[in-house]
């Protein structure tokens, strides 16, 4: 019995293999002709429907998101750290040596130009001036006497004698001037208006000629010096406004203007020194403060697209535009990038529809449909997508063919 079952199983396996390889034998076709015809018709219907489906998928539009190309300026910011100094700052030096008999040097005090700061002992200079004035008076009398005698016909007063007397008078006059300058040097005055710094000069000190007495800073405006990189050189001719902030006044921003910059780059740092003037009418800013300086440059309007609109290939970067429902690539050069925006240089007019989402799945010449566009897209020859005859679907064509195959002949 076991051998019989094994034999039956083997025969069944062989018959199945035969049918799979060579099809149904002719005898079975004669006995079951209708069923086979129906099966072939069904297979034909499935094949036609599958082919129609392939045709429909081959002509389906790719759904993308588009947006009009906009033009906007690119705002670039340069940051630097600088140090401030007074618009005018001087160190007051002693023009002469001598003992200090008066000192008016209030630390951090406001003074005006011409105010007396220090007075030195001037007794010697006063006496020298008196002597010079007496000599001048004597020389002037001599010239007047010689002139009268010569006018009265006195032959002893020659022209040479009178000329020598005139020269002596002029020398005496010059000597008086020198003594007046020497006396004036004993009084040291403020050369500019501003604020006094610290000074250790006191009454009784003996100063040497050229000794520093005090510093004066005119802080009605400050000059902030800072360094900018080489790439900022072109910007300096277009921007003259800076924004400055200092840790001394958190949250406050001070406006300034670029007033000067160096004529060459530093050979080591490859940077250029720039000076900006910041007005300081209230005197709240002090020389020596540290400032963080910002320079903002706004370019001319340029084409800007979302970063998702940029695609890459071996040829470089590009964007895709909607050319009457057809995807068309346009080469671009990326100029700037910030957050989700990219500024580009491309031969694309403002307002052109640019694919912003879905660009990675596009191919040149592919039909595209934007999100929310339910209208059927037509190919360039005027036929609707789907590949079938107008007004009929591929499935309907397949059903019609099946009915014709089943109709009696």
From TrEMBL:
One of its GO terms (cellular component) is efflux pump complex. Residues 399-409 have a biased composition (Polar residues). Residues 224-297 form the CusB-like beta-barrel domain. Keywords: Coiled coil. Residues 88-212 form the Multidrug resistance protein MdtA-like barrel-sandwich hybrid domain. The keyword Phosphoprotein does not apply. One of its GO terms (molecular function) is efflux transmembrane transporter activity. It comes from the Bacteria. Residues 117-149 form a coiled coil. Residues 366-409 are annotated as: Disordered. This is Multidrug resistance protein. It comes from Roseobacter litoralis (strain ATCC 49566 / DSM 6996 / JCM 21268 / NBRC 15278 / OCh 149).
């Amino acid at each position: 019995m076991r051998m019989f079952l094994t034999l039956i199983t083997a025969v069944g396996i062989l018959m199945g293999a035969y049918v799979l390889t060579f099809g149904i034998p002719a005898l079975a076709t004669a006995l079951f002709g209708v069923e086979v015809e129906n099966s072939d018709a069904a297979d034909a219907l499935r094949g036609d429907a599958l082919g129609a489906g392939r045709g429909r998928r081959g002509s389906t539009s790719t759904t993308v998101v588009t947006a009009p190309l906009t033009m906007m300026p690119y705002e670039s910011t340069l940051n630097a750290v600088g140090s401030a100094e007074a618009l005018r700052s001087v160190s007051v030096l002693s023009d002469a040596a001598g003992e200090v008999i008066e000192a008016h040097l209030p630390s951090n005090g406001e003074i005006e130009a011409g105010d007396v700061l220090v007075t030195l002992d001037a007794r010697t200079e006063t006496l020298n001036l008196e002597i010079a004035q007496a000599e001048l008076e004597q020389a002037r009398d001599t010239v007047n006497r010689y002139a009268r005698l010569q006018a009265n016909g006195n032959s002893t007063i020659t022209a040479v004698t009178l000329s020598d007397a005139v020269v002596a008078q002029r020398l005496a006059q010059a000597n008086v001037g020198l003594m007046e300058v020497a006396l004036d040097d004993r009084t040291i005055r403020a050369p500019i208006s501003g604020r006094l710094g610290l000074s250790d000069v006191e009454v009784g000190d003996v100063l040497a000629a050229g000794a520093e007495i005090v510093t004066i800073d005119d802080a009605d405006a400050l000059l902030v010096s800072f360094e900018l990189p080489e790439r900022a050189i072109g910007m300096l001719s277009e921007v003259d406004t800076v924004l400055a902030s200092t840790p001394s006044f958190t949250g406050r921003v001070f406006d300034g203007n670029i007033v000067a910059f160096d004529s060459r780059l530093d050979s080591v740092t490859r940077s250029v020194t720039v000076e900006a003037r910041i007005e300081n009418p209230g005197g709240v800013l002090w020389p020596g403060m540290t400032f963080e300086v910002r320079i903002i440059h706004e370019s001319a309007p340029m084409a800007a697209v979302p970063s998702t609109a940029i695609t890459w290939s071996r040829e470089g970067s590009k964007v895709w535009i909607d050319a009457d429902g057809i995807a068309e690539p346009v080469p671009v050069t990326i100029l700037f990038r910030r957050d989700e925006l990219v500024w580009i240089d491309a031969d694309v007019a403002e307002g052109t529809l640019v694919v912003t989402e879905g660009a990675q799945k596009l191919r040149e010449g592919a039909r595209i449909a934007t999100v929310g566009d339910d209208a059927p897209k037509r190919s360039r020859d005027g036929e609707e997508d789907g590949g079938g005859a107008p007004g009929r679907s591929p499935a309907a064509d397949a059903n019609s063919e099946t009915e014709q195959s089943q109709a009696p002949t």
